[in-house]
């Protein structure tokens, strides 16, 4: 068991505006403490200016904010405990909008009475436990109606808070790394700017082992080959009107274990495949924003470890297979996963069978959008011929190697070009391009 989440606790860091004026903007160094982490609140280091306690939830029957019974002992004493170590720290209570499409949040925002119930109870809960601020988290609008309701809600929340005669609460929001939620949907940036004190951007989990079949930097600060990186996201937010002094970068201190197809190819961009563990991880992806901090590590190290987050996982493979996979690169052959081939051939369906050779059956395979890999191989609709060497064939790894070598050298108009192979457990498969 590799432990992916060491502590669920994450680190946020303010991007300073490059201001030459005399205004004394101070850095926000905030930490996010997640109740499920079991990280003791008394051990949270004192380096922070702000600390978030996460999460309060939305009751979907009366739309009030509530704290789970199991979290209540920690969240109710959070402010008191952390202030014992650091009296000047400011605490905020983070409220979770629901699962992937934030159903709880959007159900709440759809009616005035529900919004009122939420707003009143959020302020009451914050005051009750001594929090000086509230945070809205995990909210991803995906319809125009959602967006309108979200705007209305934000305005009402802020107005209500401002109408309190005594010191008002800080309001913050946790948002996606980029203001664009998809090609057409964008956060209500103007409303956000006007009403929130700052926004912390989720600048991690750009790629996950459960969703990507090659290793990628899940928290890249800069990546010229893609738009999934923090540099791009921040620029987009600023371009859309969020001032730099309202941006806090949410950095993860967690990595992922990728199962490498070939342990020798362990650079960013190497083929990898999903494992049960990573499936587990996927199921828990709601929680994946709950990242991690090793308290005493410096910012520099945090940055470096975000980039170098590829953890090599021990994979037991015979030397013959390793050698074969190694050669694949030199010959420009692709190492396919058995699951990919299974999917492309409709689980080696009899309907896909196009022949039977001496060594075993040959199938026609068709790529689909999920089988497509980083290099676009086996992409949507691409046809391949799959030669599955029969399980009873005596051919060992060495013979298979020879066959791969021979096939890869054959370049003839009448011969199908070898594209790659798959060698996994007892399976030995050759993949040819279809003409
Ligand atoms: C949610 O609200 C309902 C209706 O007021 C109440 O019965 C229930 O106990 C609440 N649930 C929680 C977890 O607070
Ligand atoms: C707290 O309650 C919410 C809503 O019922 C639930 O989704 C969440 O998993 C609970 N969290 C914990 C840590 O029990
Ligand atoms: C908000 O979006 C959710 C999820 O797409 C949808 O089910 C819901 O009906 C929407 N609510 C409104 C008010 O548009
Ligand atoms: C602020 O005022 C409200 C009423 O307007 C009150 O309920 C609350 O306790 C006050 N909070 C503080 C921190 O004084
Ligand atoms: C993006 C991609 O190709 N994902 C696939 C990776 O492999 C797993 C299982 O092998 C598939 O379920 C994914 O669809």
Automatic annotation (TrEMBL):
Keywords: ATP-binding, Membrane, Nucleotide-binding, Signal, Transmembrane, Transmembrane helix. CDD domains: GH18_plant_chitinase_class_V (cd02879). GO terms for biological process: carbohydrate metabolic process; chitin catabolic process. GO terms for cellular component: extracellular region. One of its GO terms (molecular function) is chitin binding. Residues 27-435 form the GH18 domain. PROSITE patterns: GH18_2 (PS51910), PROTEIN_KINASE_DOM (PS50011). This is Receptor-like kinase CHRK1. It comes from Solanum tuberosum (Potato). The lineage of its organism: Eukaryota, Viridiplantae, Streptophyta, Embryophyta, Tracheophyta.
């Amino acid at each position: 068991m590799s432990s992916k989440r060491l502590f669920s606790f994450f680190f946020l860091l303010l991007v300073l505006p490059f201001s030459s004026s005399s205004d004394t903007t101070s850095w926000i160094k905030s930490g996010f403490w997640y109740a499920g982490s079991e990280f003791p609140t008394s051990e949270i280091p004192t380096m922070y200016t702000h600390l978030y306690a996460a999460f309060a939830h939305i009751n979907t029957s009366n739309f009030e904010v509530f704290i789970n019974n199991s979290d209540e002992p920690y969240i109710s004493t959070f402010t008191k405990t952390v202030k014992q170590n650091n009296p000047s720290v400011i605490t905020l209570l983070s409220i979770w909008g629901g699962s992937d499409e934030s159903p709880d949040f959007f159900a709440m925002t759809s009616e005035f009475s529900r919004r009122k119930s939420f707003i009143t109870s959020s302020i009451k809960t914050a005051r009750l436990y001594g929090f000086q601020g509230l945070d809205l988290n995990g909210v991803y609008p995906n319809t125009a109606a959602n967006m309108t309701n979200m705007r209305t809600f934000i305005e009402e929340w802020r107005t209500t808070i401002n109408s309190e005669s005594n010191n008002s609460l800080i309001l913050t929001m946790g948002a996606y790394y980029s203001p664009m939620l998809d090609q057409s949907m964008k956060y209500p940036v103007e409303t956000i700017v006007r009403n929130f004190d700052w926004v912390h951007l989720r600048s991690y989990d750009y790629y996950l082992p459960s969703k990507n079949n090659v290793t990628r930097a899940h928290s890249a600060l800069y990546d010229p080959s893609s738009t999934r990186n923090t540099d791009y996201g921040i620029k987009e937010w600023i371009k859309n009107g969020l001032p730099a002094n309202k941006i806090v970068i949410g950095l993860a201190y967690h990595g992922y274990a990728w199962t490498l197809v070939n342990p020798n190819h362990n650079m960013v961009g190497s083929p990898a495949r999903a494992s049960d563990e990573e499936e587990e991880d996927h199921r828990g992806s709601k929680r994946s924003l709950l990242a991690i901090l090793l308290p005493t590590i410096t910012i520099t190290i945090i940055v470096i470890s975000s980039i170098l987050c590829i953890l090599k996982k021990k994979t037991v493979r015979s030397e013959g297979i390793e050698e074969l996979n190694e050669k694949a690169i030199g010959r420009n052959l692709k190492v396919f996963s058995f699951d990919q081939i299974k999917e492309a051939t409709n689980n080696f369906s009899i309907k896909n069978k196009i022949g039977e050779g001496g060594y075993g059956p040959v199938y026609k395979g068709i790529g689909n959008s999920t089988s497509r890999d980083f290099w676009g191989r086996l992409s949507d609709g691409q046809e391949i011929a799959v030669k599955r060497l029969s399980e009873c064939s005596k051919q060992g790894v060495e013979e298979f190697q020879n066959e791969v070598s021979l096939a890869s050298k054959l370049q003839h108009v009448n011969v199908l070009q070898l594209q790659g192979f798959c060698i996994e457990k007892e399976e030995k498969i050759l993949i040819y391009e279809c003409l």
